[in-house]
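User: I'm putting together a teaching handout on how multi-component assemblies are represented. Below are the sequence lines for each component of a complex, exactly as they appear in our records. Could you produce the 3D structure of the whole assembly as structure tokens, so the students can see both representations side by side? Please keep the chain order the same as the input.
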Amino acid sequence: MDIVELSRLQFAVTALYHFLFVPLTLGLSILLGIMETVYVMTGREIWRDMTKFWGALFGINFAMGVATGITMEFQFGTNWAYYSHYVGDVFGAPLAIEGLMAFFLEATFVGLFFFAWNKLSKISHLVVTWALAIATNLSALWILIANGWMQFPAGARFNADTMRMEVSDFMEVLFNPVAQAKFVHTVSAGYVVGSVFVLAISAYYLLRGRHVELAKRSMTVAASFGLASALSVVVLGDESGYTAGLNQKMKIAAVEAMWNTEPAPASFTIFGIPDLKTRTTHYEVKVPWALGLIATRSSDKVVYGIDDLVDLAKARIKNGMIAYGALTKLKADRGNEAMREELDTHVADLGYALLLKRFRPDVQNATPAQIDAAAASTIPDVPVLFWSFRFMVGLGFYFIALFALAFWLSAKRRLDAYPLFLKFAFWTLPLPWIAAELGWIVAEYGRQPWVIEGVLPTALGVSSTAPGNVLFSLIGFALFYSTLLVADVYLLVKYIRLGPDGTLGHTVAVPFARNPAE
Amino acid sequence: MWEGNANVAGRIVVLGARDSRVNYFCSRFGRRKLERTTLGEEKRKMTSARRPLLWREITILLAVKVAALTCLYLLFFGPSHRPLADTSAVSAHVLSTDR
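Assistant: Of course. Below is the structure of the complete assembly, with chains in the same order as your input.
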């Protein structure tokens, strides 16, 4: 493996691992806020105990999330130095705000949440819990603004003198439609993860007849919040698909394994087997109009197929070569205004010319065959995207069905009446994580070969370091993260088995319990 | 009749019989002292006993942390390990013909 593949693998491993913890933190933080609100409103001790018990599990997960997230920020400097220089002016700002504002805010309120139960009034502690939840979500907002810019680099322009992208309009970066859609979709997915976690563990207690009162109440909260969140994920995922359809047409075509452009409105492929050799999809099962309506929100706009998008990429590469030539001359003669003007005219396609770097160093002299190869390299891995997307969507609809059933049983006060349902709820536990990881694979693997869509190919962002260094740190991360995973699972299982009584060190209050003296 | 106990910074302090105010002071290395005290003295002794220990533990922890960070810096993040990525380096990286 070369330096590019090793650096990509290292970032993918650490990001996917980190994202095991993030969605649960997002989801549980809001659920803690809901539970404590009920406690403050009703004054019933059981809701305080619920908040404390689920809060203990939240704490274990939060600590692991922090430990695994920090390494990624270092990788921007160590493994992605050219990337950091080229786009750091834009990308660095939301990343810094996330670290300085949101994370410190979050860390402060985490401390208060755990240690201030007896120091603050009920209302003050409730404010702390909600502040924690908001800060957690703010962290996600800033990181997703940074990530959204990688998918849709709005509000920035290339500066030939500094050789970097620079912010031209921070509001455009902040209110980037891709970032906003991605944020609401991702946090909703996190709420689903948190809700399934609470639902599954509560089902485990109900199956064993332990902590029944706490488990039923927890399940009720998880079912209602989870149902709203699961519905949101689908609706907001549709918005995310629409924004991707505007500026990441190749990603949409690859996700659909749509090789040729169909007459509008395009149909949606529910099932099929993509064949890379023949560039066709076998055994397709299609829903007419569906993709056209989702991706363009219209019945007369075209969704382009992969082959047409490759042709478009060829044209942009040729245009980019003019920009590249102008930039090269401009670097030699800074006062050459004609070249500056030519660069400004074609700068939007400069990134496409950089795709040729993989095939030859002197981009201006690329042959038609090399231009064809560079254009073909804009196609991401179609089967991986096709299947990841379908499993993710399938799981999303399964969660809606599960939460709807749980909500109905909760309304009928029959949550513990059907052991089969409880077993289903328990064994659902790993599925939202799988769905969330698949979502990231679609978003990030689908962006390839770009690290910044249309601006910078991934291969050009990697540092010129020795592959051995990256391999060494990759092995180190794998070992360290595996140890953390064992510790995390051990602690979570330990406290779940201990249950609320064992975790809190006292018997959880049961409301309306008959007084033994009566 | 036992009055209660407290676990402070790794030490177990067992308050003695209510009547005689006997204080059993047990460190992690075993019981050390057995003396008669009043409750006020008891509290003062508990506070003064745990303060130096806490400071010592915090100091040791911070020292270990600084040493670990220094090692990490020198081994992996020092100037010699830092890839150069300024304007000229990026120009050479993006525009060079010798890649």
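A couple of points students might notice: The longest helix of chain A spans residues 467-504. The first strand of chain A starts at residue 156 and ends at 159.
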